[in-house]
Each structure stands twice: as C-alpha cells, then as structure tokens.
Amino acid sequence: MKPYSRVLLVTGSGSVKKFGIYDEVVKELEGIEIFELSGVKPNPTLDSVYQGIEICRKNNVEFILALGGGSVIDAAKAIAAGVVYQGDVWELFLDNSKFTGALNTGCILTIAATGSESNKNSIITNELTKEKLGLRRDELKPQFAILDPKYTYTLPEKQTAAGIADTMAHAFEQYFSPTKDSYLTDRMAESVMKTCIKFGPVLLNEPENYEARAEIMWASNIALNGILSCGKDTDWASHMIAHELSANYDLTHGIALAILFPNWMEQVFDETRKWKFEEYTVNVWGLSASEAKTSIIKTREFFNSLNLPDTLTKVSIDGQYFEQFAENVVRRGRTGSFKNLTKKDIISIYRRSL
Amino acid sequence: MKPYSRVLLVTGSGSVKKFGIYDEVVKELEGIEIFELSGVKPNPTLDSVYQGIEICRKNNVEFILALGGGSVIDAAKAIAAGVVYQGDVWELFLDNSKFTGALNTGCILTIAATGSESNKNSIITNELTKEKLGLRRDELKPQFAILDPKYTYTLPEKQTAAGIADTMAHAFEQYFSPTKDSYLTDRMAESVMKTCIKFGPVLLNEPENYEARAEIMWASNIALNGILSCGKDTDWASHMIAHELSANYDLTHGIALAILFPNWMEQVFDETRKWKFEEYTVNVWGLSASEAKTSIIKTREFFNSLNLPDTLTKVSIDGQYFEQFAENVVRRGRTGSFKNLTKKDIISIYRRSL
Fold first, then answer.
1. How far is A245 from chain B (nearest CA, A)?
2. Residue B1 maps to a domain
3. Average confidence (pLDDT) over A313-331
4. So what's the ipTM on this one?
C-alpha cells in the first residue's frame, strides 16, 4: 500500500475520545494530515455521509480510517464510494450497479457486531425517505482491520449485548438455508453460535474479561466476513424485517433482531424445514433431534440471557404500521430463501413479536 | 488491480494439459502475452525457481499465475520474490528478513492440500544442500485464488489422499497447542477435521463426487489460510520432522505426515497434555473424555481409511539417518510448542513410525 498523507478519521458518539482510544490512534498517525468526521450515529444516516464526502473533496483526502463499530465503518465505506461517484451518493444505494469506485478504507474496531470491518457491505439510513438500504461492492472491503478486544472493554452492556445478538443473527441467516450440502460451512456457523452462547452472558458480569471479549470479537468477524456463506443460499429476511423497525424507530439493530429472530423461527418451522432445526438442535444445543422445536425456546432463552428486551411492546413499538412495513419489505423483491416470506408471513412475525 | 499484459504461467506435471484445464485457462487469458514454466515437481525444487526467475527477467513478466497444487503455487511465490531480489533467491529462504518485495501472483487450484493459495508461505527444496525451507511474507499472499472442485476430479487417488492427510495435519498442528483460550478457533479446527473424516474416504470410491470434492477443497483452504491459528501458539514440529524425509527421499509430503502424526501423538501424550486430547476425543470423535488415548487409534484408522501407507518401512525408509534428521530439525531452533521436542523425542517419533 502506498503511504497516504491525507486521511479522514471517522468516529461515532465520542466514547473513543472519552476512553483514550482516539488519542492512541492519533498518536500512531503522526506525520499524516488528519481530517475528521465525528458524531456518526447508530444506524448511520445519509447526512453524515454527505458531510464526510464534502470534507474529503474539499481536502483531497486519500484514505478513510474508521474508528468505531459497524455504523462508523458503514459510513466510512459510503463516504469512500460517494467521493468517487459524480452524482448523489444515495443513487448508489438505490442501484448498486451505478458504483464507480471508492477510496481505500481501514478500520479500528471498537464494537464487535456487524463484521463490517471485513466485508463489502455498507448500510445507510435515509431519514428523509425512511429507507435503510445497502451498497455491496468488493471494492468497499477495508484494506485492513485492527481488532483489539481491549478496545471493547468500555462498551455499555446494552451495546455489548446488541452486538452479540447481531452476530448470532448473522450466523442464523446463513445457516438456515435451503442448501443441504454445506457441511464445513455449517459446522463453522455452529461454532460461532456456540461461542456467542458460551461467552455472551459472561460479558454482562465481566465486561473486562479479555478471553470473552476476544471470542465475541472473533465470532462477530467470522459471522460476516463471507466464510459462513461459502457455497450457500442465504436468507436475510430477518434483517430486512428488522431494518424497517430501525429505519422508523430509534431501535438498536441488534435488539430488533433479538426480538424478531425467535418469532421468525416459529413462523418458518414446519415439516419441510424441520431438518435444519434438527441439525441446529443437536449440534448447537446438544439436544436430540426429536426436540427440534425446543431449540426455538433455547434461542429465546439465549437472547434473554443477554438481558435484551424480548418483545416489541417493551421497546414501545405497537402494531399500527406493521402492514406498511411488511409491504415495504416485499416490495424490494424476494424475502428469504429458507422460506420465501409472504406479506402475511411478515405481518405474522411482527405480531408474534409484540 | 491494473491489467497485466505479460504473465508467467506456472504448471506442474502436465496433468492440467491432459485434462483440458490448461486449455480453458489459456483461452481466458486471450490478449495477454503468456510465458510458461512447466514441470514443477512435488516438493518444488530451487532449479524450477531459478528457471522461472530467468524467464520473468528476460521477458519483463508482470504477474505470475500458478495453475496447479501447492507445489506449483509455492514455486510461483518463490519466483515472484526472486525476480525482485537482487541476490540469489535461496538467501531469502535462509533469512526471510532479506525479502525485498515480490511480483503479484494468482492461483487456479487443482489439488486440495496445502492452503498455499490463500497464505503467505512458500516451501522450496534445495536438492544440492538437501534443505527444505520456507519463505513467509504477507506480500506473497496471492491476489486471488480460484477453487473449482471439478478441477480436482481427475486427481489420482494417492494424491487426493495425501492432500487430505496434509489438510488434517495442518488442522492438528494449530489445534494441539498450549493455548487454552481459543474456543472459536478450535471449534473451527474441529470442523475441518470432521470434514476430512466424513468426506475424505468418500473420494476414494467416488472421485467425481462434487460435494465431497468441494468440502475437501474448502477444508484444505480453511486449514491453512490463517484462521485456525488466530489467537494461538501453533506447533509445526510434525511438518519439520516430515520435511526432513521429503527432502531426502522421494516421499509425498502428505504421506509423510500421515505416517508420522499418530506417532507424534503417542510421543507427546502425557498427563500434562491429556486435556487437549480429551477435547479432540469428545468433539471430533464423539467419544467420552476418558477415552482420550483411543483418539490416537482413531487417528490411525482415519489415515488408513485413505489407503495411505502407515509405516516408513512400507515406503522403503529405514532408520539409518534418523539421528542426522533429528539433528537437522533441532538445529533450526525450538521444535514445537505443545511439546518442545528434544532430539531424543524426534528420533523416537521416527522409530515409532518404522
């Protein structure tokens, strides 16, 4: 990699400054001219992206360094693509094929959750249109990612738990698939799940447990760095259903998933799909295949063990827009491969989650 | 990646030509000037590397494409480094720190075994000095690797089996380690082992079984692309002990490992290291922890299930040079981390393997 002399540093809420991580990073960047975009919010918004693009263009920034979690990294990627694109960056999210290139990015991770540090995805919320859309391009994969478990010690319990729920959901969404010949990939997905189940609850009592932080950080990376989808159809229906909630309410993405996922499982479980639940039951929960339905209860218990709210009601969301949300989801095309969800299915999942 | 116009194509024994893979690749490269180094042997030798460097220098080659297995890829990497280095390329193997850069490389894999397509290692044999040494640099990691299971359909049974043994050994060498806090990494290593055990023997009867070829190819990649060593001390003693045999006899690397590994296990098994064998026994073989010693017998049975020779005697190697080989191994420094092997241990492993 050629040495860069002008770098945009992207950060979030300011906790990296509070806990000294920011100072450490800035010290490492000595000799490089740093420009800054701070205050990127969870479920990062188009506003921040526009701001970042403007800073980059005005200052001929050559490289973007994200210091934070998935939201900060996703914003950095969107900025990287937006700087190069001649039109409005949101057009890229509406039509990924318009992508024309991107600046290089790097990450220093402070929240274990999205795996964005090692993948090609950027998910941005347009607050004006209430849309939450993705831009997915190989060129958006960061050039490097630094994962130091100690940088996650100071993460509040809620964010730690939401990150673990997000990781678990990623593993599920690639695991519960119609593909039957993905033995190694599925055993690795189960390894990620078992890691979340074993080390997730530990962190609620011991936020500075290095081993648990390291395992969860590694799991969040493996869960969405591409490995768990090798050779598989994947099923991102739950993410699509959850995104509608995050785009319309102030709801942390991982919490939305923790609430919705067991209800997605209830909705899709039937005789034709039982085989995959049986695998999950035996290999992840150590139960016998005949207890396949019990694995859904175990899944609920797992999310509960992270002290996460387990109903939409508890996060003050009622059913008034479910019809509209479901309509938004199906409008974007096929919803799910393990089961292709109908609008009725989606409404039912939302209702089960109340 | 900038488009390259002058490419060195490195191949092995000629089987890629026999089975049409070569023609497919050459067709894809239309418009690019191709130079060729063919005939790279298993346990690739310094001779081939010198030849490749000469072709590259004479023709201003910009990129090296390996079409073959680990030996071809390792030769391609060594050539890539040698073209840039001003001195004799062997100096880089004697002292990795002399590395000065490398041409970019790409791989089209035709043998599932070494993981070289996704890692930074090149292992070359100097026939003159009877040394087999490695050059390990991040810059040697190929820019891309194409893994098409169909390209391994025509691989002879012996090579298929030796590749699976090599993959299993890689998983073992990262798994059997003094590191106790590597939960996720170890579960993934076990996933690779279970994949070899389940699909390896299938290929002996059904060489064109796509699923089995795909699983074995994916396993060989995961086994040595760096993931299974994350957060771990690793123990490459068996590879070092095996390399002495391959450097001095015409012995396929994977076969050497299949013969040696169960005997390495016997040698290192004791009360202080039993805990790791217990994990292996329970998670890979589904036995109870109390049967830890049985896992070594199961390991022997696994290698036997691949129709591989199980003693050095069967491959016409007797004990006359064991003392010298052991001396060569320990001379290079610390041998192993799970157990730091003495010269006496190494001789004992060789003798157990007779």
1. 32
2. no
3. 96
4. 0.94
